[in-house]
Design a protein that fits this description.
Number of domains: 1
Low-confidence stretches: 1-5, 9-16, 237-241
Bound molecules: protoporphyrin IX containing FE
Mean pLDDT: 87
Strand order of the largest sheet: 1-2
Helix content: 55-70%
Number of helices: 9
Structural class: mainly alpha
Number of strands: 2
Distance between the termini: 44 Å
CATH superfamily: Transmembrane di-heme cytochromes, Chain C
Shape: elongated
Radius of gyration: 22 Å
Largest sheet: 2 strands, antiparallel
CATH class: Mainly Alpha
Amino acid sequence: MAGSTYIPELAEGRATEAREAARHGLVVRATHWIFTLSFFGLVVSGFGIILAHPHFYWGETGGIGTKPLFSLPLPTMLGGPSGWGRYMHFQSAWIAVLAGLLYVVSGVLLRHFRDEFLPSKAELTWSSLCGSLLEHLRFTRPTQDESYNVLQRLSYLGVVFVLFPMTILSGFAMSPSITSVFPWTVEVFGGHQTARTVHFFLSDLLLLFLIAHVAMVILAGFGSRMRAMILGRAAAGKEPR
Ligand code: HEM
């Protein structure tokens, strides 16, 4: 049997290649794209629902003849697209919630969030945060380093653990069948109409995140990042843009 020689550079090279190759696990990729599809369903149907009544109120009650908190500059199409809009919204929402739950449970069990999302103490200093922010404002192309930068980590944590759960909760607060069993879901908001208004603003924040997220993916190299998020592997060596 031929003897083998340990060459540190070779071993290190293989380790690097292995790290580069495996980028996103199957559950992360599958749930990410299922969630993205259902999010588009939510946006389209949400717009349909708003068109039926583009006025927002505060407190428990509000409707035609009541003074709104604010109105969107859209035509009021009473009855219009809200029928199919509601069906599509509820269907998309449950798919998003189930995909999100699977993502969160597997991410906790596999320590994905701890390893990939939690910023280190050094990254949470003002100088590091400002440096990262300046790089983003200058549209500096990120390195092809496989780990997320501090702003990515913080925004992913915010979306996964704050924004998305709050959006679900404010959605639950508008469902009579859910509030009849769990009245606290609407009580924490102070009324159905407040929950609707808060839901609208939280959804806008999710849309803003989506725009910034896709812009960053384009800046970082659309081809390579998408390839990694679809196939799970980044191209070894020089990555395609
Ligand atoms: C509302 C919709 C979306 C949400 C909430 C979302 C959220 C996320 C999150 C949390 C991650 C980190 C995944 C992880 O490692 O656990 C991620 C990664 C990623 N997302 Fe999205 N995403 C959305 C839509 C999109 C869209 C529309 C695209 C592409 C057009 C996209 C492309 C990517 C890519 C390429 C990555 C990997 C980034 C990297 O490796 O640096 N996402 N997304």
